[in-house]
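Example record used in the benchmark description.
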Amino acid sequence: MIVIDGKPYDIGSTNFQNLEQVFTKVVEDGRLEDRIVTDVMINDEHFTEIYPHQSEDIDMADVKSVEIVTMSTDEMAVEVTLELYKVVNLMSEGGKRVAQLFRQADDAEALETYQDLLEVIRNFLRTIGVLRDEYSLKDNVEYTKAAEELNELFTEMSSVLENEDWILLADLLDYEFLPAVEKWKKVIKLIRDDIRAARR
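Model output (structure tokens):
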């Protein structure tokens, strides 16, 4: 028996040898169009592939039930914006921590944490960019301002980093980076509003 989002799904009388063939049929039938699979249950147990195409190795003779749970791409986008709020808080905490380490003259740890912070920010901006390109229907002035401010700040911080002026870098993090990061909360809200508007 196959269930997709709580509804039985009839795949006809085709004899499927393995689980991968079932998944392929579901996709070919267009059942996952504009949807993202969030959960798969096989015989009432969670299933996650440990290695690529593991589902090919699962014999359908051993499968009594398959349940697929999905979410629309729009719903997923809204969920992502909620997670991005947490990332903004993470960036704030990271900025405070790096500034504190530089002030304590723990330069090695501060530089390592700073690199981690930069990676988080890069991923954050990439995700925001994708959401904006996909869903924002209007030119988002707040986004442009926030992105430009962060860009200018990182250019300044890079030159301060080259000069190894750790106290100035701590000041930039405390007094310019933290307020700049807070502005992204408003941007996220605006993008979420755009996603919701696009769903109507």
